[in-house]
Amino acid sequence: MNRLPSYLFLALATLFWGGTQVVAKFGLREVSPLTLATWRFLVAGAVLVLLVRLSGGSLRYRAADWRDFALLGLTGVFGFNLFLFSGLHFTSASESALMLAASPVVGGILGWQFRGERLGPVRVGGILLSVAGLAAVVLAGRPLPGTPPAQRLVGDLLALGATCCWAVYTLLGKEVMRRHSPLVATAMAAVTGFAGFLAVSLLPGVHVWRDGLGMSAAGWASVLYMAILGGAAGFWAWYRGLEGVEVTTASTFQNLIPVWTLLLGSLILGERLTWLQLLGGLGVVIGCIVTARG
């Protein structure tokens, strides 16, 4: 069996996802994190629901299902994107990507604490290596031009908050996807997450809709990239790739995401990491691989 097409689809998905944080920087030059996230999931939710309908899926679910979808939306869409975009105001896309790369490690710790999943010596070693790598990324970083060092630390901590949200979303998603397809779970998470953004947008003094409609072409390109390529198309490519390889093999491709972000951040945004940060990022990635396979 020729696995090359599957590998190419998986790599394409990680490229789309790796570019998300770089592209978000352009949108954040014009609007707030809340505005950018709201418009992103207005578009992404609509596209994903359309894909569910085109694939013959239903939009009628039990109350218990909607509760589960709401938890996915709260963690993987609402919380994750607010933390991520808020952090990108203060730190680089590259640094944020290295923080997010530790999500499997955080997930392993949460699985051990709340699900009773086993943490053997190898997995513990992988976790410790990733934690050491994260420390190097944070401590050896340089602030963005025109921002004090303390703000960069705030950005890194917000990115770590996004990492924790994604780890919780992944754990919850394992249970939900025993009853629903990945497409349905992702689409309904986008819908319920958007509902959270919509509720906040209705608060007094919040101008999500006015500010969004005032974005330039670059701002709208940022929204459409994140909604379509970083959302629906990335999801489609990932699951096309999964059709031809094992899940364990596919999971290793996720380590390409920070690599793409570093490359694109350097080429498009002119970002530069210190050598110690690069070594720390390598430690995070290796630690994640060890944790996943231990």
TrEMBL record:
Keyword tags: Membrane, Transmembrane, Transmembrane helix
TM region positions: 34-56, 68-90, 96-112, 124-141, 153-172, 184-206, 218-239, 251-269, 275-292
Subcellular location: Membrane
GO cellular component entries: membrane
Keyword Magnesium: no
Membrane topology designation: Multi-pass membrane protein
Record-linked Pfam families: EamA
Protein origin, superkingdom: Bacteria
Stretches assigned to the EamA domain: 6-138, 154-291
Annotated InterPro entries: AA-Vitamin_Transporters (IPR050638), EamA_dom (IPR000620), EmrE-like (IPR037185)
Family note: Belongs to the EamA transporter family.
Protein name as annotated: Membrane protein
Source species: Caldinitratiruptor microaerophilus
